[in-house]
């Protein structure tokens, strides 16, 4: 796990909002940073590498495949997590409970 993922996991593992999060969850040929089974939500923490080379196209293909399986993807910039992991976690919980 990257540093932003570790910082976020320290909060999410406590199940804020009574939401169960899984980390490094395998599905098909992918490994999701975080997954909320109850909401079929993948949470991806994107660092700078996600903007380079063919990575944007690969991320798009992955998101499309997940969507075809009924899984929605929420992408969050790593810099946001580094700046305020608690605020990001709160935003994720609000996103889940608003659905």
From TrEMBL:
<dbReference type="InterPro" id="IPR007569">
    <property type="entry name" value="DUF559"/>
</dbReference>
<feature type="domain" description="DUF559">
    <location>
        <begin position="3"/>
        <end position="96"/>
    </location>
</feature>
<dbReference type="InterPro" id="IPR047216">
    <property type="entry name" value="Endonuclease_DUF559_bact"/>
</dbReference>
<dbReference type="InterPro" id="IPR011335">
    <property type="entry name" value="Restrct_endonuc-II-like"/>
</dbReference>
<protein>
    <recommendedName>
        <fullName>DUF559 domain-containing protein</fullName>
    </recommendedName>
</protein>
<dbReference type="Pfam" id="PF04480">
    <property type="entry name" value="DUF559"/>
</dbReference>
